[in-house]
Amino acid sequence: MNNSKKIALAVALLCAAGTSLAQEASEIINPSWYIQPSVVGMKPDSNFGTDDKDWGGGLKFGKAVHPYWDIQLGATHVRTEDGAARYRQTTLGVDALLMLSRKQFRPFILFGVGAERDKVENQFRRVSKNSPYATAGIGFQASLSPQWSLQADIRSVRGFLRDDREYGFEQSNNKYVTVGLNYAFNPPPAPPAPAPAPVVEAPAPAPAPVAPPPPPPARFEKVTMSATELFQFDKAELRMPQTRLDEIAMALQADTSITSVDITGYTDRLGSDSYNQKLSE
To answer: Is 270 helix (H, G, I), strand (E, B) or coil?
Structure first.
C-alpha cells in the first residue's frame, strides 16, 4: 500500500471518529489569531532526483473562524541533498482545518491550496519554477496552557508542475510531517457566568383568622309604667276594680326578657314619707 492510500485510509478513519467527537459539547473557542513556528520533515518525490528525507522549517498564522473550522496561512522551506543532487521546495499557501473536537485534544482533517517553488539541481537538469499545489492530511492540536498548544500533522503535497518538460514529469507528491507550537496573541475569553439559581419565593403566609365580632352588648331598656288614684283617700286600701294594675301585670308576664322589676309607690301623694309609711303599716 503506497503512502497516498495510507493517508486516504487515515482520513476515512478520522471522519468516522469525528462524527462522535463533533457531537460533544463545544468548549470555549479562542477567537484570537495565533502564530505557529514549526519544524518540517519532508520525503520528496523521487522524480525530483532524490528521495532522501530531510528537515526544514515553517511559519504560519492561524485563527479559529467557526466551531468546526480553523484557517492557517504561511510558508515552509525544506531542502535535501543526495550527493550531487539537490532539491529545495518552498511553499506559500492556506489550509482549512476541520476540527473534530474543541476540547483539550483536538484532532482535525486539513485541506489546503497554494503555490510551491521547486528548485532541482542534478547532473540531468537545473530548473526552478513556481507551480500550484493542493494538500490534504490529518493532525491534532493539544492545549498546553490557555495560550500555548502543540500541533502536529502529516500531509501529502501534490504539485501540478507547470513545466513538465524541464522537470521530466507532470505531478509531484511530497510527504510532509510538521510539528509546531501555536501561540495565541490573546487569552481565551472567560467562560460565561453560570445562570443564577432560580429563587423560589416562600409562599405568602396564610392570613390570620379574623376574630369574630364581639357579641352585641346586652340590650338594656328601662320602661316605666305608672298608675294613679289607686288608693282611697287617706287610706291604704285599693279601689276596685284596678284595670290599670291588671294591664301592667299582664305586660310584665308577657315579656320574658324582663329581668328586674322595681315597684315604688305611695298611698297619699300629698302626705309625707312618714305619713305614707304609717298608712301602709
So the answer is: coil
